[in-house]
Amino acid sequence: MPNSAWKDFETLESYIAKEQSLHPQSRGVFSNLLRRVGLASKVILSKAQQAGLIGVLGQYGKVNVQGEQQMKLDVIANEIMKSTFMWMGHVFGLASEEEEEIIQVERRQPENSEYIILFDPLDGSSNIDANVSVGTIFSIRRRVTNGGRCTLEDFLQEGSKQVAAGYVIYGSSTMFVYTTGNGVHGFTLDPMIGEYILSHENIRIPDRCKCFSANDSNYQKWDEPTREFADYIRYGDDERYKKTTSRYIGSLVADFHRNLLYGGVFMYPADAKTGKGKLRLLYECAPLAMLAEQAGGAATTGRERILDIKPTHLHERVPFIVGNRQEIDLYEKMVREADRS
Ligand code: P6P
Prior knowledge:
Number of domains: 2
Structural class: alpha+beta
Bound molecules: 6-O-phosphono-alpha-D-fructofuranose
Distance between the termini: 52 Å
Helix content: 25-40%
CATH architecture of the largest domain: 2-Layer Sandwich
Number of strands: 15
Protein backbone atom coordinates (compact mmCIF):
# COMPACT_ATOMS: atom_id res chain seq x y z
CA MET A 1 0.00 0.00 0.00
CA PRO A 2 1.58 3.36 -0.97
CA ASN A 3 2.61 5.38 2.09
CA SER A 4 0.45 8.24 0.88
CA ALA A 5 -2.57 6.01 1.52
CA TRP A 6 -1.93 6.38 5.24
CA LYS A 7 -2.80 10.07 5.46
CA ASP A 8 -6.49 9.29 5.75
CA PHE A 9 -6.66 5.51 6.21
CA GLU A 10 -10.03 3.95 6.85
CA THR A 11 -10.45 0.71 8.77
CA LEU A 12 -13.16 -1.91 8.26
CA GLU A 13 -14.62 -0.81 11.59
CA SER A 14 -14.82 2.88 10.65
CA TYR A 15 -16.08 2.12 7.14
CA ILE A 16 -18.89 -0.06 8.47
CA ALA A 17 -19.76 2.66 10.99
CA LYS A 18 -19.82 5.23 8.18
CA GLU A 19 -22.14 3.01 6.10
CA GLN A 20 -24.33 2.55 9.19
CA SER A 21 -24.59 6.33 9.70
CA LEU A 22 -26.33 6.50 6.31
CA HIS A 23 -29.23 4.66 7.99
CA PRO A 24 -30.16 6.80 11.04
CA GLN A 25 -32.69 4.24 12.22
CA SER A 26 -30.02 1.55 12.32
CA ARG A 27 -29.30 0.02 15.74
CA GLY A 28 -25.84 -1.16 14.71
CA VAL A 29 -26.75 -4.84 14.89
CA PHE A 30 -25.97 -5.50 11.25
CA SER A 31 -22.69 -3.59 11.52
CA ASN A 32 -21.76 -5.72 14.48
CA LEU A 33 -22.35 -8.90 12.47
CA LEU A 34 -19.93 -7.72 9.79
CA ARG A 35 -17.35 -6.82 12.43
CA ARG A 36 -17.70 -10.29 13.93
CA VAL A 37 -16.97 -11.88 10.55
CA GLY A 38 -13.83 -9.77 10.43
CA LEU A 39 -12.81 -10.99 13.89
CA ALA A 40 -13.52 -14.64 13.04
CA SER A 41 -11.39 -14.33 9.89
CA LYS A 42 -8.40 -13.15 11.95
CA VAL A 43 -8.71 -16.18 14.23
CA ILE A 44 -9.02 -18.51 11.22
CA LEU A 45 -5.98 -16.81 9.66
CA SER A 46 -3.93 -17.35 12.79
CA LYS A 47 -4.70 -21.09 12.68
CA ALA A 48 -4.13 -21.38 8.92
CA GLN A 49 -0.78 -19.59 9.16
CA GLN A 50 0.46 -21.87 11.92
CA ALA A 51 -1.05 -24.97 10.30
CA GLY A 52 2.25 -26.60 9.45
CA LEU A 53 3.60 -25.86 12.92
CA ILE A 54 0.77 -26.89 15.21
CA GLY A 55 -0.09 -30.09 13.42
CA VAL A 56 -3.41 -29.05 11.87
CA LEU A 57 -2.55 -29.82 8.28
CA GLY A 58 -4.01 -32.85 6.62
CA GLN A 59 -7.31 -34.67 6.76
CA TYR A 60 -9.56 -34.74 9.81
CA GLY A 61 -10.50 -38.31 9.06
CA LYS A 62 -14.23 -37.77 8.41
CA VAL A 63 -16.33 -37.10 5.32
CA ASN A 64 -18.64 -34.07 5.45
CA VAL A 65 -22.20 -33.71 4.22
CA GLN A 66 -20.78 -32.87 0.80
CA GLY A 67 -19.13 -36.29 0.61
CA GLU A 68 -15.74 -34.54 0.77
CA GLN A 69 -12.83 -35.42 3.05
CA GLN A 70 -12.84 -32.87 5.88
CA MET A 71 -9.49 -31.22 6.48
CA LYS A 72 -8.51 -30.50 10.08
CA LEU A 73 -8.65 -26.78 9.29
CA ASP A 74 -12.20 -27.13 7.89
CA VAL A 75 -13.35 -28.33 11.30
CA ILE A 76 -11.38 -25.64 13.16
CA ALA A 77 -12.65 -22.85 10.88
CA ASN A 78 -16.21 -24.12 11.20
CA GLU A 79 -16.02 -24.09 15.01
CA ILE A 80 -14.55 -20.57 14.95
CA MET A 81 -17.35 -19.26 12.72
CA LYS A 82 -20.07 -20.93 14.80
CA SER A 83 -18.72 -19.74 18.12
CA THR A 84 -18.42 -16.19 16.73
CA PHE A 85 -22.20 -15.93 16.33
CA MET A 86 -23.65 -18.44 18.78
CA TRP A 87 -23.90 -15.91 21.62
CA MET A 88 -25.14 -12.98 19.51
CA GLY A 89 -28.74 -12.16 20.44
CA HIS A 90 -29.63 -10.85 16.99
CA VAL A 91 -28.57 -13.97 15.12
CA PHE A 92 -31.53 -16.30 14.57
CA GLY A 93 -29.73 -19.21 12.95
CA LEU A 94 -26.67 -20.40 11.06
CA ALA A 95 -25.88 -22.73 8.17
CA SER A 96 -22.46 -24.05 7.24
CA GLU A 97 -21.04 -26.08 4.38
CA GLU A 98 -19.63 -28.34 7.08
CA GLU A 99 -22.96 -28.98 8.84
CA GLU A 100 -25.73 -31.16 7.45
CA GLU A 101 -28.52 -29.32 9.27
CA ILE A 102 -29.25 -25.67 10.09
CA ILE A 103 -27.91 -24.51 13.45
CA GLN A 104 -30.25 -23.05 16.07
CA VAL A 105 -28.83 -20.09 17.99
CA GLU A 106 -30.32 -20.40 21.48
CA ARG A 107 -31.07 -16.99 22.87
CA ARG A 108 -33.30 -15.39 25.41
CA GLN A 109 -35.30 -13.08 23.14
CA PRO A 110 -36.18 -14.77 19.84
CA GLU A 111 -38.27 -11.75 18.88
CA ASN A 112 -35.10 -9.61 18.71
CA SER A 113 -33.15 -11.98 16.52
CA GLU A 114 -33.58 -11.20 12.87
CA TYR A 115 -30.50 -12.32 10.92
CA ILE A 116 -29.40 -15.65 9.58
CA ILE A 117 -25.83 -16.28 8.47
CA LEU A 118 -24.62 -18.86 5.98
CA PHE A 119 -20.96 -19.61 5.40
CA ASP A 120 -18.35 -21.79 3.85
CA PRO A 121 -15.80 -21.55 6.64
CA LEU A 122 -12.74 -22.53 4.63
CA ASP A 123 -13.31 -22.90 0.92
CA GLY A 124 -10.53 -24.53 -1.05
CA SER A 125 -9.13 -26.26 2.01
CA SER A 126 -8.05 -29.31 0.01
CA ASN A 127 -5.31 -26.99 -1.33
CA ILE A 128 -4.15 -25.71 2.02
CA ASP A 129 -1.43 -28.32 2.57
CA ALA A 130 0.20 -26.91 -0.57
CA ASN A 131 -0.07 -23.34 0.73
CA VAL A 132 -2.56 -22.30 -1.96
CA SER A 133 -4.84 -19.34 -1.17
CA VAL A 134 -8.10 -20.30 0.53
CA GLY A 135 -11.07 -18.30 1.74
CA THR A 136 -14.11 -17.87 3.95
CA ILE A 137 -17.38 -17.00 2.18
CA PHE A 138 -20.41 -15.56 4.01
CA SER A 139 -23.97 -14.51 3.30
CA ILE A 140 -26.29 -12.57 5.62
CA ARG A 141 -30.08 -12.60 5.24
CA ARG A 142 -33.10 -11.70 7.35
CA ARG A 143 -35.30 -14.40 8.90
CA VAL A 144 -38.72 -14.86 7.28
CA THR A 145 -40.46 -16.95 9.98
CA ASN A 146 -41.71 -15.69 13.36
CA GLY A 147 -41.37 -18.75 15.53
CA GLY A 148 -38.98 -19.28 18.42
CA ARG A 149 -36.64 -21.45 16.34
CA CYS A 150 -35.28 -20.97 12.85
CA THR A 151 -36.50 -23.31 10.13
CA LEU A 152 -35.28 -24.28 6.67
CA GLU A 153 -37.72 -21.71 5.25
CA ASP A 154 -35.55 -18.95 6.73
CA PHE A 155 -32.58 -20.24 4.69
CA LEU A 156 -34.17 -21.29 1.40
CA GLN A 157 -34.47 -17.73 0.08
CA GLU A 158 -33.35 -16.39 -3.27
CA GLY A 159 -29.91 -14.78 -3.31
CA SER A 160 -31.56 -11.46 -4.19
CA LYS A 161 -32.79 -11.42 -0.56
CA GLN A 162 -29.22 -11.21 0.82
CA VAL A 163 -28.56 -8.09 2.90
CA ALA A 164 -24.79 -8.62 2.78
CA ALA A 165 -22.29 -10.97 1.20
CA GLY A 166 -18.53 -11.25 1.19
CA TYR A 167 -15.42 -13.29 1.54
CA VAL A 168 -12.02 -13.22 3.17
CA ILE A 169 -9.13 -14.44 1.04
CA TYR A 170 -6.12 -15.80 2.91
CA GLY A 171 -3.47 -15.27 0.27
CA SER A 172 -0.20 -13.37 -0.15
CA SER A 173 -2.11 -10.81 1.87
CA THR A 174 -5.40 -11.26 3.69
CA MET A 175 -8.32 -9.29 2.29
CA PHE A 176 -11.88 -8.80 3.49
CA VAL A 177 -14.20 -8.05 0.56
CA TYR A 178 -17.91 -7.34 1.11
CA THR A 179 -21.03 -5.64 -0.15
CA THR A 180 -24.23 -4.53 1.54
CA GLY A 181 -25.73 -3.54 -1.78
CA ASN A 182 -23.83 -0.26 -2.01
CA GLY A 183 -20.84 -1.37 -4.06
CA VAL A 184 -18.01 -3.77 -3.31
CA HIS A 185 -15.25 -2.73 -0.93
CA GLY A 186 -11.93 -4.43 -0.14
CA PHE A 187 -9.87 -4.16 3.04
CA THR A 188 -6.31 -5.43 3.40
CA LEU A 189 -5.20 -6.77 6.78
CA ASP A 190 -2.24 -4.94 8.29
CA PRO A 191 -0.76 -7.70 10.47
CA MET A 192 1.27 -5.13 12.41
CA ILE A 193 -1.86 -3.59 13.90
CA GLY A 194 -4.36 -6.41 13.29
CA GLU A 195 -6.74 -4.09 11.44
CA TYR A 196 -8.35 -4.36 8.02
CA ILE A 197 -7.47 -1.14 6.13
CA LEU A 198 -9.57 0.11 3.19
CA SER A 199 -7.47 -0.60 0.10
CA HIS A 200 -10.01 -1.19 -2.70
CA GLU A 201 -13.07 1.07 -2.46
CA ASN A 202 -15.89 0.56 -4.98
CA ILE A 203 -14.33 -2.34 -6.87
CA ARG A 204 -15.59 -2.58 -10.47
CA ILE A 205 -14.76 -5.52 -12.71
CA PRO A 206 -12.58 -4.10 -15.54
CA ASP A 207 -14.28 -4.37 -18.94
CA ARG A 208 -11.86 -6.92 -20.33
CA CYS A 209 -11.78 -10.71 -20.28
CA LYS A 210 -8.23 -11.05 -18.96
CA CYS A 211 -8.67 -14.59 -17.61
CA PHE A 212 -10.72 -17.62 -18.55
CA SER A 213 -10.97 -19.87 -15.51
CA ALA A 214 -12.32 -23.45 -15.59
CA ASN A 215 -11.15 -26.97 -14.81
CA ASP A 216 -10.35 -28.13 -18.32
CA SER A 217 -10.20 -31.79 -17.28
CA ASN A 218 -14.01 -31.64 -17.20
CA TYR A 219 -14.27 -30.43 -20.83
CA GLN A 220 -15.75 -33.71 -22.08
CA LYS A 221 -18.37 -33.60 -19.32
CA TRP A 222 -19.64 -30.18 -20.40
CA ASP A 223 -22.67 -29.82 -22.67
CA GLU A 224 -22.33 -28.52 -26.24
CA PRO A 225 -22.98 -24.76 -25.65
CA THR A 226 -20.50 -24.76 -22.74
CA ARG A 227 -17.78 -26.32 -24.87
CA GLU A 228 -18.65 -23.87 -27.67
CA PHE A 229 -18.35 -20.94 -25.24
CA ALA A 230 -14.98 -22.14 -23.91
CA ASP A 231 -13.62 -22.71 -27.42
CA TYR A 232 -14.90 -19.33 -28.64
CA ILE A 233 -13.02 -17.50 -25.89
CA ARG A 234 -9.86 -19.58 -25.98
CA TYR A 235 -9.43 -20.34 -29.68
CA GLY A 236 -11.76 -17.91 -31.50
CA ASP A 237 -10.58 -14.86 -33.47
CA ASP A 238 -12.71 -12.31 -31.60
CA GLU A 239 -10.41 -9.31 -30.90
CA ARG A 240 -11.73 -9.14 -27.32
CA TYR A 241 -10.09 -12.47 -26.46
CA LYS A 242 -6.77 -12.02 -28.22
CA LYS A 243 -5.03 -11.45 -24.88
CA THR A 244 -7.22 -13.70 -22.75
CA THR A 245 -5.23 -16.26 -20.78
CA SER A 246 -6.29 -19.39 -18.89
CA ARG A 247 -5.89 -19.34 -15.13
CA TYR A 248 -7.37 -21.92 -12.75
CA ILE A 249 -6.27 -22.07 -9.12
CA GLY A 250 -8.89 -24.61 -8.02
CA SER A 251 -9.77 -22.45 -5.03
CA LEU A 252 -13.04 -20.63 -5.69
CA VAL A 253 -12.34 -17.50 -3.64
CA ALA A 254 -8.89 -17.08 -5.24
CA ASP A 255 -10.21 -17.57 -8.79
CA PHE A 256 -13.13 -15.22 -8.13
CA HIS A 257 -10.98 -12.55 -6.47
CA ARG A 258 -8.50 -12.48 -9.37
CA ASN A 259 -11.29 -12.03 -11.92
CA LEU A 260 -12.99 -9.37 -9.79
CA LEU A 261 -9.82 -7.28 -9.92
CA TYR A 262 -8.46 -8.16 -13.39
CA GLY A 263 -11.62 -9.00 -15.37
CA GLY A 264 -12.53 -12.40 -16.70
CA VAL A 265 -14.92 -15.33 -16.44
CA PHE A 266 -14.94 -18.28 -14.05
CA MET A 267 -17.09 -21.30 -14.67
CA TYR A 268 -17.91 -24.51 -12.91
CA PRO A 269 -20.66 -25.72 -15.26
CA ALA A 270 -22.99 -28.67 -14.86
CA ASP A 271 -21.75 -32.14 -15.59
CA ALA A 272 -23.75 -32.98 -18.75
CA LYS A 273 -24.61 -36.39 -17.31
CA THR A 274 -25.88 -35.40 -13.86
CA GLY A 275 -26.95 -31.88 -14.85
CA LYS A 276 -25.53 -30.80 -11.53
CA GLY A 277 -22.72 -28.39 -10.79
CA LYS A 278 -20.24 -28.83 -7.95
CA LEU A 279 -20.49 -25.49 -6.21
CA ARG A 280 -23.11 -24.81 -3.54
CA LEU A 281 -25.76 -22.20 -4.16
CA LEU A 282 -26.50 -20.80 -0.72
CA TYR A 283 -23.05 -20.14 0.73
CA GLU A 284 -20.78 -20.06 -2.35
CA CYS A 285 -22.55 -19.03 -5.58
CA ALA A 286 -25.19 -16.63 -4.19
CA PRO A 287 -22.81 -14.46 -2.12
CA LEU A 288 -20.26 -14.31 -4.96
CA ALA A 289 -23.06 -13.54 -7.42
CA MET A 290 -24.16 -10.57 -5.28
CA LEU A 291 -20.57 -9.29 -5.23
CA ALA A 292 -20.19 -9.79 -8.99
CA GLU A 293 -23.39 -7.87 -9.77
CA GLN A 294 -22.49 -5.10 -7.33
CA ALA A 295 -19.13 -4.78 -9.15
CA GLY A 296 -20.83 -4.50 -12.56
CA GLY A 297 -20.59 -8.15 -13.52
CA ALA A 298 -23.08 -11.03 -13.61
CA ALA A 299 -23.58 -14.65 -12.54
CA THR A 300 -25.71 -17.31 -14.19
CA THR A 301 -26.40 -21.03 -14.45
CA GLY A 302 -26.65 -20.41 -18.20
CA ARG A 303 -30.44 -20.48 -18.02
CA GLU A 304 -31.12 -18.53 -14.84
CA ARG A 305 -29.64 -15.58 -12.93
CA ILE A 306 -28.01 -17.05 -9.82
CA LEU A 307 -29.67 -14.48 -7.53
CA ASP A 308 -33.16 -15.46 -8.81
CA ILE A 309 -32.89 -19.16 -7.93
CA LYS A 310 -35.29 -20.30 -5.21
CA PRO A 311 -33.33 -23.01 -3.36
CA THR A 312 -35.02 -26.34 -2.66
CA HIS A 313 -32.52 -27.65 -0.14
CA LEU A 314 -29.69 -26.37 2.04
CA HIS A 315 -26.71 -27.82 0.17
CA GLU A 316 -28.09 -27.44 -3.33
CA ARG A 317 -25.47 -27.35 -6.08
CA VAL A 318 -25.83 -25.28 -9.26
CA PRO A 319 -23.84 -24.63 -12.42
CA PHE A 320 -21.91 -21.40 -11.78
CA ILE A 321 -20.64 -19.04 -14.48
CA VAL A 322 -19.56 -15.63 -13.17
CA GLY A 323 -17.61 -12.61 -14.41
CA ASN A 324 -17.88 -9.79 -16.92
CA ARG A 325 -21.45 -9.01 -18.00
CA GLN A 326 -20.43 -9.31 -21.68
CA GLU A 327 -19.18 -12.90 -21.27
CA ILE A 328 -22.20 -13.93 -19.20
CA ASP A 329 -24.53 -12.50 -21.87
CA LEU A 330 -22.59 -14.40 -24.55
CA TYR A 331 -22.82 -17.68 -22.62
CA GLU A 332 -26.56 -17.29 -22.01
CA LYS A 333 -27.06 -16.53 -25.72
CA MET A 334 -25.20 -19.71 -26.71
CA VAL A 335 -27.26 -21.77 -24.25
CA ARG A 336 -30.54 -20.27 -25.53
CA GLU A 337 -29.60 -21.03 -29.15
CA ALA A 338 -28.65 -24.60 -28.22
CA ASP A 339 -31.96 -25.06 -26.36
CA ARG A 340 -33.88 -23.81 -29.40
CA SER A 341 -32.06 -26.05 -31.87
P1 P6P B 1 -12.20 -29.05 -8.92
C1 P6P B 1 -12.53 -26.44 -3.64
O1 P6P B 1 -12.59 -27.80 -3.28
C2 P6P B 1 -13.80 -26.10 -4.40
O2 P6P B 1 -14.91 -26.33 -3.61
C3 P6P B 1 -13.74 -24.66 -4.87
O3 P6P B 1 -13.00 -23.85 -4.01
C4 P6P B 1 -13.09 -24.77 -6.23
O4 P6P B 1 -13.51 -23.76 -7.13
C5 P6P B 1 -13.57 -26.15 -6.72
O5 P6P B 1 -13.88 -26.92 -5.56
C6 P6P B 1 -12.48 -26.86 -7.50
O6 P6P B 1 -13.05 -28.09 -7.95
O7 P6P B 1 -13.17 -30.13 -9.30
O8 P6P B 1 -11.78 -28.20 -10.11
O9 P6P B 1 -11.03 -29.50 -8.09
